[in-house]
């Protein structure tokens, strides 16, 4: 048992160092090159009239931190969803959670245009909840609806429906540009005031996620077994969904839609640390944050000096990995 | 004395009534086996007793306490249920899975107490799976895996054990192995067992009490001698069974059967043989 926990502990202990490193690299590389010393000075001897300092504080640092947070939020959401549904295809982007969020934000942009950051995050969370409720509601109604393939189909169908509806509303009220600008992954223009709010909201979600993490392991043995073991399965599911809503809602409000992180990172994490969610949840957060931050850095180099959308990066890395998963683990990761 | 009692229970599945007004008393310290054709409500009854399904009408009493008013963790200390074909991640190691059986007893979930460790050790031993305690579940055969699940249920240290088709998909030797473990638990560890079995000969050999169901009704309840008879099996399964007594242990054995819709000649033959036994 001792050497089994070595990997997750290693990940958790080196995480702060790696976070600092990617934030540093993320600030360093960009359209305008910044000297390492400048970063040091921007932190410890900040001058408001120094252009580089201003760029670092208002743009580069929020972007780096935002990528870390969003990656972590989405990966934790995905890990929670996969654990509680025992469905290895579950993730916020496949299960309608992100599309629900986009849908409600679109409605808000049309009908109540002047939303504060705080209201925006709240709306986004309501949307996440809406998407999740519709998809899981259908899943519960349909026979075997929570099985991996069916839930993925229901989620994709409802997600597509919600995002089409959003697009229709947006174009009818002629806010398409605003909306698409808003929800197409915008890591490069994170609103610092939104970022400040994303931290407390996300922390609530993470605390909830860590609180249920051990119970998720029991739940992943199956609903009947977890009831037989005396677990309050409904309570755990509600708490987990609440965590997903907080995390995904905040992530979408902050940067819009980013696919694949919530799907592939939990798999990668289980591959690294095993299947005990006590470790999977925190490690998925760390791996997800680093993954998205590194993708964000790479996105600046693929077509330098132009930036490549982050979704392209996560898909280019994510899709082959996903296919690999289906090929190798499709049928045999559960017995 | 009854340890588990179902009173006027009604269960539905997608609008269909599986059973209604169903009553059953499970006698303390005995092995009770539910038999019946597919879809007759055996598993539903077991799940209702194990509070996996809540009856729409009626009540279930565990040691004279309404199961609905007891905290689920409290129930889990006294009663457990092993579902049909449980599924777990293949990477999970045997001992790790069994340790989850201690879940209802643990206050601090991250540390196993000496008592926890003793119970896990006992469960490993009694199910004869000590040699593969460190193996991942995915590397085991179906029979070995079933014993691991049984060990997890045993680590839970309950007085009532509900088993849903514990021998399905196992070869003859493993079926016997699992049932002998169950028998041992009942005889030496005061465990009350309720299980669903398809093999009536296993039911006859290993149970004190057999419950025969058909179409959501309990047709009859009684000892194996009373239950494994031409008449009762015809009512339950619509078969004409040929029955004799196993000289090895005196339990009734069905050594052959025909559909009850078959020709009369066959039916006569069965009756003759029944007289002979």
| Full CATH superfamily name of chain A | ABC transporter involved in vitamin B12 uptake, BtuC
CATH topology name of the largest domain in chain B: Rossmann fold
Low-confidence stretches of chain A: 331-335
Instruction: Give the overall shape of chain A.
Output: globular
Which structural class fits the helix and strand makeup of chain B? alpha/beta
Q: In angstroms, what separates the terminal alpha carbons of chain B?
A: 33 Å
The total beta strand count of chain A reads 0
Shape of chain B: globular
Structural class of chain A, by secondary structure, is mainly alpha
How far apart, in Å, are the first and last alpha carbons of chain A? 22 Å
CATH topology of chain A: ABC transporter involved in vitamin B12 uptake, BtuC
Helicity of chain B, in percent? Answer: 25-40%
Count the beta strands of chain B.
Answer: 12
Q: Strands of the biggest beta sheet of chain B: in what spatial order?
A: 6-7-8-3-9-10
Report the mean per-residue pLDDT of chain A as an integer.
86
Characterize the largest beta sheet of chain A: strand count, sense, and whether it forms a barrel. none
Q: Which two protein chains have the largest interface (Cβ within 8 Å of the partner's Cβ), and how many residues from each?
A: A-B, 26 and 35 residues
Pfam families (chain A): FecCD
Keywords (chain A): Cell membrane, Membrane, Transmembrane, Transmembrane helix, Transport
Membrane topology (chain A): Multi-pass membrane protein
InterPro entries (chain A): ABC_BtuC-like (IPR037294), ABC_transptr_permease_BtuC (IPR000522)
């Amino acid at each position: 048992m001792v050497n089994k926990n070595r990997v997750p502990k290693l990940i958790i202990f080196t995480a702060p160092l790696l976070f600092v490193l990617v934030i540093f690299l993320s600030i360093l590389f960009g359209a305008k090159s910044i000297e390492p010393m400048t970063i040091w000075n921007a932190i410890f001897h900040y001058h408001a009239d120094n252009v580089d300092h201003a760029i670092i504080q208002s743009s580069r640092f929020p972007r780096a931190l935002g990528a870390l947070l969003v990656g972590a939020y989405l990966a934790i959401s995905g890990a929670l969803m996969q654990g509680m549904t025992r469905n290895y295809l579950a993730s916020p982007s496949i299960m309608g959670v992100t599309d629900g969020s986009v849908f409600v934000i679109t409605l808000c942009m049309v009908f109540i245009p002047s939303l504060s950051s705080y209201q925006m995050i709240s709306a986004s969370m309501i949307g996440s909840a809406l998407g999740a409720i519709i998809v899981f509601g259908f899943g519960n109604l349909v026979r075997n609806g929570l099985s991996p393939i069916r839930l993925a189909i229901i989620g994709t169908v409802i997600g597509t429906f919600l995002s089409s509806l959003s697009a229709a509303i947006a174009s009818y009220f002629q806010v398409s540009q605003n909306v698409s600008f808003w929800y197409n992954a915008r890591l490069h223009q994170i609103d610092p005031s939104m970022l400040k709010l994303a931290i407390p909201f996300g922390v609530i979600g993470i605390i909830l996620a860590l609180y249920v993490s051990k119970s998720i392991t029991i739940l992943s043995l199956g609903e009947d077994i977890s009831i037989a073991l005396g677990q309050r399965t409904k309570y755990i599911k509600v708490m987990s969904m609440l965590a997903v809503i907080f995390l995904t809602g905040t992530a979408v409000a902050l940067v819009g839609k980013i696919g694949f992180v919530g799907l592939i990172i939990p798999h990668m994490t289980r591959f690294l640390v095993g299947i005990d969610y006590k470790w999977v949840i925190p490690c998925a957060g760390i791996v997800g944050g680093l993954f998205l931050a590194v993708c964000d850095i790479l996105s600046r180099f693929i077509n330098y000096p132009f930036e490549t959308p982050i979704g392209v990066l996560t898909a280019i890395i994510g899709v082959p990995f996903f296919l690999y998963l289906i090929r190798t683990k499709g049928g045999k990761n559960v017995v | 004395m009854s340890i588990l009692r179902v009173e006027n229970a009604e269960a539905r599945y997608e609008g269909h009534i599986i059973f209604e007004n169903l009553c059953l008393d499970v006698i303390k310290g005995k092995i009770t086996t539910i038999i019946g054709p597919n879809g007759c409500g055996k598993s539903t009854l077991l799940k209702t007793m194990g509070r996996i399904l809540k009856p729409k009408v009626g009540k279930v009493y565990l040691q004279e306490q309404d199961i609905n008013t007891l905290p689920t963790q409290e129930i889990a200390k006294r009663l457990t249920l092993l579902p049909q074909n449980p599924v777990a991640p293949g990477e999970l190691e045997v001992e790790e899975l069994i340790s989850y059986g201690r879940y209802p007893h643990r206050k601090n979930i991250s540390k196993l107490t000496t008592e926890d460790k003793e119970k896990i050790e006992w469960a490993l031993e009694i199910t004869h799976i000590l040699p593969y305690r460190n193996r991942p579940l995915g590397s085991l055969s179906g029979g070995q895996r079933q014993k691991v699940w049984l060990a997890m249920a045993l680590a839970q240290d309950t007085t009532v054990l509900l088993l849903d088709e514990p021998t399905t998909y196992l070869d003859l030797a493993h079926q016997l192995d699992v049932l002998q473990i169950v028998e041992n638990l009942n005889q030496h560890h005061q465990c009350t067992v309720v299980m669903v079995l398809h093999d009536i000969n296993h039911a006859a050999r290993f149970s004190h009490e057999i419950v025969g169901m058909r179409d959501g009704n309990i047709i009859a309840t009684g000892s194996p001698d009373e239950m494994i008879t031409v008449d009762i099996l015809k009512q339950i399964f619509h078969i004409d069974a040929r029955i004799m007594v196993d000289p090895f242990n005196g339990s009734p054995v069905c050594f052959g059967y025909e559909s009850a819709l078959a020709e009369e000649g066959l039916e006569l033959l069965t009756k003759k043989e029944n007289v002979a036994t």
